[in-house]
Amino acid sequence: MEQSLLQFQGISKSYSSKKALRDVTFGIGAGKIVGLLGTNGSGKTTLMKIAAGLNHPSEGSVTVAGLPVGLNTKSIVSFMPDRPLTESWMKVKDAIGFYQDFYQDFDGNKAKRMLDFMNLSINDRISSLSKGMNERLQLTLALSRNAKLYLLDEPIGGVDPVARTKILDAIVEFYSEDSSLVISTHLVRDIERIFDEVIFIQNGEIVLQDEVENIRIKHGKSVDDMFKEVFAE
Ligand SMILES: Nc1ncnc2c1ncn2[C@@H]1O[C@H](COP(=O)(O)OP(=O)(O)OP(=O)(O)O)[C@@H](O)[C@H]1O
Fold first, then answer.
1. ipTM value for the complex
2. Rounded distance between C-alpha atoms, residue 118 and residue 197, angstroms
3. I want to staple 105 with a disulfide (CB 3.0 to 4.6 A). Which of 56, 146, 211, 231 is the partner?
4. What span, in angstroms and rounded, lies between the C-alpha atoms of 22 and 43?
5. Protein residues with CB under 6 Å of any ligand 1 atom
6. Start and end of every ABC transporter domain (predicted)?
7. How confident is the model at residue 2 (pLDDT cuts 50, 70, 90)?
């Protein structure tokens, strides 16, 4: 069997009395764009933080490229959190410099091309950016690394619908095809066109993992219709 780039095995995570993940097992192959789809509080951020090595599971094991998640995997995983990591005093160029110093795999040329594409200037002050513009910056920072696995937590929640198309095009254009990309979102309809595979997570459990093409052929449905059906309240 082909080795997974990201493998979760029997992962559970509890926060005091709350169980955020329950016995989560799945694998993601190399070269895939995967949608991690679930409603608010379903466990998406918790799952991503565990894959990024920023949160520790209560039970189970996670590997990236066959390595247990830890210091070794942090250098090959690029995580875009749902809340900005940059400081408000920074200008865009300071944030770029910070990433460049911190990550050996940061590609300055790629960052420059992405900033142009995103209509961001290196002299923009981060505190003056709107939520959507800030997301564009965070996405630029995350995708400018030459990582093996990219984890983007709700990357376009604050971007207006018109700009979403442009941002999705940037994601597809700037990610390298031998790496994998996991994108968490509940904006399924807007993003589903770029997914190869989707994982549905509900109350901390994986309830479906399939290729998008299979969902369309087997069920005769779009991912968005399937999502609405599974998550109907
Ligand atoms: N630090 C924490 N302490 C206690 N409970 C937490 C903590 N972080 C998350 N939780 C709980 O764990 C569950 C899963 O949260 P998580 O943030 O992973 O969900 P999510 O799918 O990313 O949600 P959203 O789409 O709203 O961002 C939620 O019920 C949440 O309240």
1. 0.95
2. 26
3. 146
4. 9
5. 15, 18, 20, 38, 40-46
6. 6-228
7. low
